[in-house]
Amino acid sequence: MTIARVSPPGSPSATARDEEAVYFPAGAHQLFGVLTRPVVESNGCAVLLIKGGSPNLVSFQRNRLAVRIARRAAGLGYHVLRFDWHGVGESGGPLEVFRLDRPFGDDVVAAVKWLQAQGFAQVVLVGSCYGGRAALMAARKLHGVQGVVLVSMSVAYDLYRLRADNVAVTQYVRRGMSLRRLRGLFNSTMRRAYARVAWDKVRAIVARRWRRLTSRDSIDPTLVSTDVFGQLKHLLDRRARVLFIYGTEDPFYRHFRRVNEGAFGRFLARYGDLVEVSADIDGVVHEYTTVAVQDGTVEAVAQWLRHRLPTTESQPLVAEQVES
Amino acid sequence: MNVLSDPPVRNAATRLDPETGVVEEAAFFGRESEMLFGVTHLPPGEVLGGVLICSPLHAEFLRHYRNEVLVARKLASRGLAVHRFHYRGAGQSDGGDSELTFESMVEDTVAAGDRLRERIDGRPLSLLGTRWGGLIAGSAVSRLDPVALALWEPVTDPAAYFQEGFRALLLHRLKEGRPKENDTPLPQDQLRRTGSVDVLGYSIERSLYESALPHRLEAEIRGALPVFLLQLSRGSALRKPLAAIESELESRGCQVTTHLIREQVAWWFQDTDVSQSQWLTAASEITGDWLFEMHTARSLG
């Protein structure tokens, strides 16, 4: 299902006058954020904007994308918080490696807890790529999550394993026969790297064969991260809405389309219109390297916030932490 | 004794940096219809003076953002109050792409400088500008009358800056493997024809381009003040444009200190390395020493 991209006429938008800087605790650190207040009657729901995983990406994101989304959502009645990861931007703490399989979910939990302490029991998480993974991870530990927007997010377990599944054995052999690669056999670091690649490929083959022998409805863990699957199930079982946004040429979208044809797609289909996919933004959304994809993303998020949320068929309004 | 005035802004959020003892105040300030965002880093003890940081633009702003935060904390830990701000049309501030012009950035710099001056009760003020921020800082000298000007890899010629951006765009297209499209205009031509060009997700408007072109760094810096010039490059000699700036400023009576760090920075592209750049550590130390010396000399004088 795609979201119609029609801007409602005369929608107000917030400005800096409607914003305030905040610091909130996250473990041993203090994270920085900007809270945007609605410029129309508040709907009691807060949106948390979660950016991608990069040392250079700060809360306002490339070309102020997060500022635009925040101020636009404020025109729809939402409070919006955009924030910096620990070690990035204005936040405290050391800069750490961004790993897709270990996103900074605790930073997201801290941001949501802060929002809930301000009185917002219902929250919507909007995460880009790594931010989407962090959103899913955090949502497992939280109550009151009405919905999650996952922009250009990979559902694969590991990007290297994703490659292992997509490259044929014959290609591996052909590439391995090059002089450079053969010379690498005399280097212990390269030998370990080759062994890892070979092992990933063997796992991919075995997993696919095993899946064929067992239930056709089991999700192939080499294609879809078991964490992502479990986190999505957790959300959808609690009637939260999920929107996937991709560009037509996003590499993660190609993979998403592929897994959507199998057990993963059947799993998502069980939840009916709780799950939506918007993939009509031309080009590559990931990293937002054109103004056109930025505008498309702002529009897609705004339309979904306007038409799909907040809902009354929700989780309990009292915000409680489910897992510490 | 710390004698700073109360902040004349609303709703400032504060944070105490546990490593340096620096207090950071983040707030929106200025006219209600055109608010700017800024962060003031306040020393834990005696305040020697203030440093206003003028930031780069576009992708370079994001690339250098955390560096400026760390530099500010470092300088503040040494007794210099630091103020960083976002120009209208950039970062968290108000304003759209078309409102970002050379003149608006200089105005915002002066407004931010005045704000810092109020906070440091008349103590000496200096400017630190990186890349485009160096050009803006240079232009603001005549209006802010700082005691010193530090420039990191300053843009000396706006036309060259935009060319770098256009080259980065073409490189990005090549990297993406896009087939040659005969009807895709060159960035410069597109800017001329349509009034804006999308450079790696940043809309460069004709208003910014045309307002900036007449301003060259050596002409913008007025008066004879101490200038610190930092170059980042693989070469061992000052590049021609910076050497020309050095020579021109010295001929006008400026005391120019130059420093070269052998490091190449691809300003228009994101840095994925999480380890703190060695060049930043060296640049912070040496610039901090120089600023400290300038401020000390002023307060003794």
SSE layout:
The complex is a heterodimer of chains A (324) and B (301).
Chain A: E1 19-26, E2 29-36, E3 45-50, H1 65-74, E4 79-83, H2 105-117, E5 122-128, H3 130-139, E6 145-151, H4 159-166, H5 169-176, H6 179-184, H7 188-213, H8 226-237, E7 241-247, H9 251-260, H10 263-269, E8 275-281, H11 291-308
Helix pairs in contact in A: 1-11, 2-3, 3-8, 4-7
Chain B: E1 13-16, E2 23-29, E3 36-42, E4 49-54, H1 58-77, E5 80-85, H2 102-119, E6 125-130, H3 132-144, E7 148-152, H4 158-175, H5 187-194, E8 196-199, E9 202-205, H6 206-212, H7 217-220, E10 227-233, H8 240-251, E11 256-262, H9 278-300
Parallel strand pairs in B: 4-5, 4-6, 6-7, 7-10, 10-11
Antiparallel strand pairs in B: 1-2, 2-3, 3-5, 8-9
Helix pairs in contact in B: 1-9, 2-3
Unreliable residue stretches of chain A? 1-8, 312-324
Gyration radius over CA of chain B: 19 Å
Uncertain segments of chain B are 1-8
Helix count, DSSP H or I runs of 4 or more residues of chain A: 11
> Which structural class do the helices and strands of chain B define?
alpha/beta
Separate helix tally of chain B: 9
β content of chain B, as a range? Answer: 15-25%
What would you call the structural class of chain A?
alpha/beta
Mean pLDDT of chain B: 90
Q: What is the helix fraction of residues of chain A, given as a range?
A: 25-40%
Element-level helix/strand string of chain A: EEEHEHEHEHHHHHEHHEH
Strand order of the largest sheet of chain A: 1-2-4-3-5-6-7-8
The tally of strands of chain B reads 11
- Order of adjacent strands in the largest pleated sheet of chain B: 1-2-3-5-4-6-7-10-11
- Residue-averaged pLDDT of chain A, rounded? 85
Oligomer: heterodimer
**Amount of beta strand of chain A:** 15-25%
The biggest beta sheet of chain A reads:
8 strands, mixed
**Overall body shape of chain A:** globular
Terminal-residue CA separation of chain B:
20 Å
